[in-house]
Q: What sequence folds into this?
């Protein structure tokens, strides 16, 4: 039971850190309203309000993989989904199999 609680707290902290990081980097395009991370299944889900839109959309990294190299941790994005088919296609074409070095704020929570 404590293991599940600790995992839930870690995933919650990762979601908060990721939301802040992405909003800082991509705030010109919109805002992440909610972000959740499921480290067990390698999934990230977000509710996003894009600039100019009245209703938020749902978007998810359905599968990601983490790899450690020394002190660095990299995430490779594998599969995407969203509540908008065009966005799912765009995310898939632009980001599938891309590898990103995680910022220290996120890395330290892993």
A:
């Amino acid at each position: 039971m404590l293991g599940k609680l600790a995992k839930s707290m870690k995933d919650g902290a990762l979601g908060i850190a990721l939301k802040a990081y992405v909003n800082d980097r991509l705030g010109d395009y919109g805002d992440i309203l909610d972000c959740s991370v499921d480290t067990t299944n390698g999934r990230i889900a977000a509710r996003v309000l894009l600039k100019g839109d009245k209703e938020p959309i749902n978007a998810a990294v359905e599968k990601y993989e983490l790899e450690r190299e020394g002190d660095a941790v990299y995430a490779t994005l594998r599969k995407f989904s969203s509540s908008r088919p065009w966005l799912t296609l765009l995310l898939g074409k632009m980001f599938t199999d891309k590898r990103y070095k995680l910022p220290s704020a996120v890395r330290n929570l892993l």
Summary: The longest strand covers residues 57-69. The chain has a mean pLDDT of 92. The chain has one domain: 2-107. Residues 2-26 form the longest helix (25 residues).
